[in-house]
Design brief:
By secondary structure, the protein is an alpha/beta fold. The chain is built from eight helices and eleven strands. The protein has an eight-stranded mixed beta sheet with strand order 1-2-11-10-7-3-4-6, with helices on both faces. Strands 5-9-8 form a three-stranded antiparallel beta sheet.
């Protein structure tokens, strides 16, 4: 079932397997088109448990993986072999296509300081486009039940700047009082995410669907970051959901 949400669309599937197949088809279509047009493809992906099976199934796609580069939407500021590292998860899940030649670049470039790490991650991204802000052929986003996306959380001071800054990557300080994020993080900014030719937002569970619809109804960036992002996003977002 497909439901229009302004310029965006919400596609509902009965099972995770069907939803994953739809996400994989979108990845294949976007990367294939990019390779056919420009000879290479650049995409970025979210961490967490929901997209992990998608990364694990990338090797089912018939693509010239040596022409593909994958980086990240955001990352926890931890060593890349830490159990909390999405770099570790993504590298392990996508290992078969990395072995076939796909380049995978983490946002973690320097563990001495989160601000320096963000600056170096920005240099990495700009290096994909001769120093200019890159365009991503596909962005795979996730969302938490608290309505956060990337590492842009409700109630966080970052919301005051992340929609207007010219930076592509910013450090994210831990929240106080036990709120998320508990760990320091690195995140792409709205300016960076808006430079996506195609965006897929993949969520599961009724709690997240309810949170998404509430965020769309009241897109206050401080309380509903994903709603604020969708309200300003220039690209139609393909939202994939299953119970």
């Amino acid at each position: 079932m497909t439901e229009a949400l302004g310029i965006h669309r919400l596609r509902t599937f009965d099972s995770a397997a069907e939803a994953e197949t739809a996400v994989l088809a979108a990845i294949a279509e976007a990367l294939s088109a990019a390779i056919a047009k420009r000879g290479q493809a650049l995409w970025i992906g979210a961490g967490g448990g929901t997209p992990k099976p998608v990364y694990q199934q990338l090797d089912t796609l018939d693509l010239p993986w040596d022409k593909v580069t994958l980086s990240q939407v955001d990352e926890r500021f931890v060593p890349v072999d830490d159990a909390a590292s999405n770099t570790k998860m993504m590298a392990e899940a996508a290992a078969p296509v990395i072995a076939k030649g796909m380049r995978f670049d983490t946002l973690i470039r320097d563990l001495s300081d989160a601000g320096l790490c963000a600056q170096q991650a920005e240099t990495l991204l700009r290096g994909f486009n001769d120093g200019d802000a890159p365009e991503f052929d596909l962005t795979l986003l996730g969302m938490g039940p608290d309505k956060h996306y990337a590492s842009i959380f409700p109630g966080h001071a970052l919301n005051a700047t992340v929609y207007d800054t010219d930076a592509l990557v910013l450090p994210v300080a831990p929240a106080s009082g036990g709120a998320e994020p508990k760990l320091p993080r690195i995140t792409l900014t709205v300016k960076a995410l808006n430079r996506s030719r195609r965006i897929v937002l993949y969520i599961t569970g009724q709690e997240k669907r309810d949170a998404l619809m509430a965020a769309i109804a009241d897109p206050n960036p401080d309380t509903a970051p994903i709603g604020a992002f969708l309200a300003q996003c220039p690209v139609p977002v393909d939202i994939v959901w299953c119970p």
